[in-house]
Amino acid sequence: MKKIETALSGCYVIEPQVFGDARGWFYESYSKARFSEIGIDTVFVQDNRSFSAQKGTLRGLHCQTDPHAQTKLICCTRGSLLDVVVDVREGSPSFMQHIRIELSAENKRMLYIPKGFLHGFLTLTDDVEVFYKVDDFYYPENDRSVRYCDPAFSIEWGVASPVLSVKDSTNALFSESDIHFTWE
To answer: Is 139 assigned a catalytic role?
Structure first.
């Protein structure tokens, strides 16, 4: 397993070691021991799955606030997506910056996202399935969303008219939200 630094402090691309032959392939998507070896000791408590039927579906930008902020480990198990993460930890060297990473069933990459980040993705194919682990349970009262096209982030999604939920189409701007994280 390989941990690759990104431009956002604490956010990593994880590349598993894939074993394949004429029959197919195998890899460990998560092993507490392997993650500890690469310096990630997060204890995950919940697994989530998401399915998007249509190419161009955009979900985000989401987070959960303290005291139930979540660290996430994201992977795409079917199709492909553009995963976007925004650092909203005040004081962080990468505050208000974002990265865009393609995750796909083919490349088998995962994205490790610590607390204090907004997260969203755009499906690049039809029939996209996302699997992710989180280190705290879902609490509706701590669920927050920010407009995907907030000019404060200047995110190039690459789609003019994404498929959005009612919730994601009416999110507030970050400056209007009560989201507050501090870099440690």
So the answer is: no
